[in-house]
Amino acid sequence: MDQLSVEHLLGIKYLNANDIDLIFKTADHFKEVINRPIKKVPSLRDITIANLFFENSTRTKLSFELAEKRLSADVINFSAGQSSVKKGETLIDTVNNILSMKVDIVVMRHGSVGAGVFLSNHVDAKIINAGDGTHEHPTQALLDSYSIREKLGSVKGKKIVIIGDILHSRVALSNIYALQLQGAQVKVCGPTTLIPKYITSLGVEVETNLKKALEWCDVANVLRVQHERMDIKYFPSTREYTQLFGINQEILNNLGKKIVIMHPGPINRGVEITSDVADSDQSIILSQVENGVAVRMAVIYLLAQQIKR
């Protein structure tokens, strides 16, 4: 059987093009499964998975949990807000306590960059990074690429613009890595204060004019402004941000071509994107949510195949 070249999913930067291809082929199979009347397969009946969320998350956590249950795994949910972490327990102690319950796979979201890599060096379990700080969010990037492939037939040669708060976004970085691995062209667009200085070193062009960015692209992946990660003001007001970088139906109608609209959620309706755009036939936002379950099933399944019994 084909295998991933990695032992954990810590970030897209550790994957190669064959890994992405294998994940997508596996996800195709699971997408068919979750659209059946009986949506479960017994593939991981003897596997125990712990979801460790040290940061709040609703959609990612639900998506992983559903993926795990569809594969018939045993699931433990741990949320740090109500836990011993508040009492000063270290990350390794927390995880080792959970692993002593004979856990095979850990899905972790953590506020610190590199937390997943740190953990993979210290504990004996497969680690899936569900977001580390402002660094990477690999399964989101995989489901985004998978959704583009499903809508447009292929990612190769497509022009993708990522719009919004690039500086605080783990989605942006993972998407850039994933899209480039598959041969897409990538630009970013947003206020210069929200675009990191190093971004051009990744082979990404910066466009500060929204209209030009939309005229260039096939797909616009719109990110929300992450106010919760901001300790200073990066732009004068939300209203001004919306005037310069918000997407509404009128802007799309004036493009003279149909582009695909994506959003990793949660959406600030009326800020980065209006409701009529989010709910339009150009939007594949709900497909992204559905594909998230299939892609996460694929990642979990492929990593579980490497577990030695």
How do the strands and helices of this protein lay out in sequence?
Layout: H1 17-34, E1 48-53, H2 59-70, E2 74-79, H3 91-99, E3 105-110, H4 115-120, E4 126-132, H5 138-152, E5 159-163, H6 170-181, E6 185-189, E7 205-207, H7 210-216, E8 219-222, H8 238-245, H9 249-253, E9 260-262, H10 275-278, H11 285-304
Parallel strand pairs: 1-2, 1-3, 3-4, 5-6, 5-8, 6-7, 8-9
Describe the structure using short key phrases.
309 residues; alpha/beta; 5-stranded parallel β-sheet; 11 helices; Rossmann fold; transferase; 38% helix; globular
Notes on the structure:
With 309 residues, the protein is an alpha/beta fold. The protein folds into 2 domains: 12-137 and 289-304, 3-Layer(aba) Sandwich (Rossmann fold); 138-284, Rossmann fold. It contains 11 helices and 9 strands. It has helices spanning 17-34, 59-70, 91-99, 115-120, 138-152, 170-181, 210-216, 238-245, 249-253, 275-278, 285-304, and strands spanning 48-53, 74-79, 105-110, 126-132, 159-163, 185-189, 205-207, 219-222, 260-262. The strands form 2 sheets. A 5-stranded parallel sheet has the order 7-6-5-8-9. Strands 2-1-3-4 form a 4-stranded parallel sheet. Strand 3 (105-110), helix 4 and strand 4 (126-132) form a beta-alpha-beta unit. Helix 2 crosses helix 11 and helix 5 crosses helix 11. The chain is globular. 44% of the residues are buried. The model has no long low-confidence stretch (mean pLDDT 92). Heterododecamer (2C3:3R2) of six catalytic PyrB chains organized as two trimers (C3), and six regulatory PyrI chains organized as three dimers (R2). Its EC number is 2.1.3.2. GO terms for molecular function: aspartate carbamoyltransferase activity.
